[in-house]
Design goal:
With 353 residues, the protein is of the alpha/beta class. It folds into three domains: 69 residues, no CATH class; 157 residues, no CATH class; 104 residues, Orthogonal Bundle (Arc Repressor Mutant, subunit A), CATH 1.10.10.60. The protein has 17 helices and nine strands. Helix 4 packs parallel to helix 8, helix 5 runs antiparallel to helix 6 and helix 5 runs antiparallel to helix 10. The longest helix has 21 residues. The radius of gyration is 20 Å and the shape is globular. 37% of the residues are buried.
Length: 353
């Protein structure tokens, strides 16, 4: 199957762990504390062929949250990755002619560049949107926040080094404003906002990640903005050095993509159809989803909620049009589902944003 699961050791990111260990040491946190429970040892990290699992990296992030709460570790890691620590794929991006080429490279080499999130794009007449969800497993909010901070810092690092006008892009984070807001202000010299808080935000459990996605918005004119250090020959050179491994995506990425395709085409989708599509039994599908910290209904709700919020806040659709897009039989059912998903009525959420 064209996906990998959270327990599989397929991620070539030992440099990421090394950088985090160094940051922790600088803050007087012993490496063994940062690696505790991950089944990784300091001696392992010197192996250039080392591959780790999502589970192992998640445990490192959990330890960072425990020993360095509210630190800027994610922002620091993101700012240091590009281009050298992203290997040949990062070097290929470093010589792109425009932002459109960078995005195409990021999409093609996402497994090598940033395997923890998957991207889909939406657009309006004036703006292009890139929407990111967790790709491998649905993790708790601390983990999701770390990944979002890491990715946004990496994005800004790329923009700065390519002399891209960052004032023309904005980031919407999928959670309410955190306590360490000053770090966002220090590391992100662009427009950014957070998702509104309700009395009961939609979570998979009290500590699971929110249904909303990380959203990057930019005006379409930025896509062809000429970038510094462009070199087509170097791009080709480094692209040829990217490992020609079979293209795989995270398990959650694969399942959500099937749901997104069916929702967009207004085709019926249910657990039976998905299990049959994956050539597994319903019981196996349920077990796999449980191993990745989610249920079928929760993922299906995520897909519909994100589509509904985008149509509401960016396309300014009314309830009737959104309900029709999501194939709801009537507006009352849609409004009831929207309130369950978000903690808001559609109009209250629009006002909150």
């Amino acid at each position: 199957m064209p996906f990998f699961e959270q327990h599989e050791k397929t991620l070539a990111i030992p440099l990421w762990v090394i950088l985090l260990v160094d940051m922790a040491k600088q803050r007087h946190i012993a490496p063994d504390k940062l690696l505790k429970g991950s089944k990784l040892f300091l001696s392992d990290l010197s192996n250039p062929t080392l591959q780790v699992s999502h589970q192992q990296f998640s445990r490192v992030i959990e330890n960072i949250s425990k020993y360095l709460p509210h630190s800027d570790s994610a922002f620091l890691l993101g700012s240091r990755l590009y281009p050298n620590h992203l290997e040949p794929a990062g070097q290929a991006m470093a010589h792109a002619e425009n932002l459109s080429d960078i995005i195409a490279a990021a999409r093609h080499f996402h497994y090598q560049i940033f395997p923890f999130l998957f991207m889909r794009n939406e657009s309006t007449e004036q703006h292009q949107y890139y929407i990111f969800n967790q790709a491998i497993s649905i993790e708790n909010i601390n983990h999701y926040q770390f990944i979002c901070e890491l990715f946004s810092s990496l994005l800004i690092s790329i923009a700065k080094q390519k002399q891209l006008p960052v004032s023309r892009l904005s980031i919407r984070f999928p959670y309410p404003a955190p306590r360490h807001i000053e770090q966002y202000q220090a590391y992100l010299p662009c427009k950014f906002e957070f998702s509104p808080s309700a009395n009961s935000l939609p979570t998979f459990s009290s500590q699971k990640a929110y249904h909303l996605a990380l959203q990057i918005k930019l005006d379409k004119g930025l896509l062809m903005f000429p970038l510094a250090n462009a070199n087509a020959a170097l791009i080709k050179h480094y692209q040829q050095k990217v490992p020609s491994t079979t293209l795989k995506v995270g398990f959650i990425h694969y399942v959500m993509q099937q749901m997104i395709n069916r929702v967009r085409s207004k085709q019926e989708i249910n657990a039976d159809w998905l299990a049959n599509h994956l050539s597994i039994s319903n019981a196996t599908l349920k077990r796999k989803l449980c191993q990745h910290n989610v249920t079928y209904q929760q993922l299906f709700d995520m897909v519909r909620q994100q589509h509904a919020v985008f149509l509401l806040t960016e396309h300014n659709f009314n309830n009737e049009k959104i309900a029709e897009n999501l194939n709801f039989s009537d507006i009352t059912n849609f409004r009831r589902s929207f309130k369950r998903w978000t903690g808001f009525t559609p109009q209250a959420l629009k006002k909150a944003f």
